Amino acid sequence: MIFYFTATGNSKFIAERIAAKTNDSLVNIAECIKIGNFSFELKNDEAIGFVVPVYAMGIPMIVTDFLKSITVSVTPNNYAFAVLNSGGTTGNAGKMIDKYVKLNAVFGIKTVDNYVPMSKVASDEIINMQLDKAEEDIDEIVNYIMEKKNGGFNNFKGPVPGLLTALAHPIFMSSRKTAKFTVNENCNGCGLCEKICPRSVIKINDGKPTWEKPQCEICLACLHRCPKTAINYGKKTAENGRFVNKRVEF
């Protein structure tokens, strides 16, 4: 059983490819949060995996909330693993999952950096090269999972990962202000942003999205997947591009 959280498709891309080769079932964390599904039963020798993006050297709040709420019995026969994906470094994000589910192995994969409040999205050519490399890394991770190897197999933790996470993640968590979202004249009121918001923060009012809470995940699914490129966050995202992983379907 593989649990994943995705905004732009990177985690879904990884989780689907692992599950296709291990014959594990997939569980969307955001959907579980919305419907309140937190109880799961593992078979005696079934693996349990978590595939999640890294936000500022830590895991998204929605993943933490899910881990706090789930009821699942993990025995020594159940191999538990996490796959962290990031456009840069992961810090000690794996330990944040291990706090709730004791992990046998932690893996890291470098995917497409799409945090556009800080940086531009790469060209299509570079994105395809990055995803091709990620596919190769996924195949290697699958072999480790099938062999139930124990250990830390994340090469993207960065220097002094504990310090990086301790410094960067709290700052990000306190700065998740929805007031920075804006909507331009391109918006046609399609409602996709409301539908895909993992926290149900967005509501369509008078044909335009509004953010009903002061904070959200800042997963930026609404921004990246808006068909009219109508949503921005802060001053830089209008010029920094958009990204949706085209190797998965939503």
Give an account of the 3D structure:
The chain has 250 residues and is an alpha/beta fold. The protein folds into two domains: 2-172, Rossmann fold; 178-233, Alpha-Beta Plaits (2-Layer Sandwich). 33% of the residues lie in helices and 17% in strands. The chain has eight helices and ten strands. The strands form three sheets. Strands 2-1-3-4-5-6 form a six-stranded parallel β-sheet. Strand 5 (105-110), helix 5 and strand 6 (151-153) form a beta-alpha-beta unit. Helix 1 (10-22) runs parallel beside helix 5. The radius of gyration is 18 Å and the shape is globular. The relative contact order is 0.17.
**Largest pleated sheet:** 6 strands, parallel
Q: Specify the structural class.
A: alpha/beta
For this structure, what is the CATH class of the largest domain? Alpha Beta
Just name the CATH architecture of the largest domain. 3-Layer(aba) Sandwich
Helix content: 25-40%
Number of helices: 8
Question: What's the CATH topology name of the largest domain?
Answer: Rossmann fold
**Termini separation:** 20 Å
Low-confidence stretches: none
Mean pLDDT: 96
The Cα radius of gyration reads 18 Å
Shape, please? globular
Task: Give, in order, the helices and strands.
Answer: EHEHEHEHEHEHEHEEHE
Number of strands: 10
Major β-sheet strand ordering:
2-1-3-4-5-6
> Number of domains in the coordinates?
2
Tell me the fraction of residues in β-strands, as a range: 15-25%
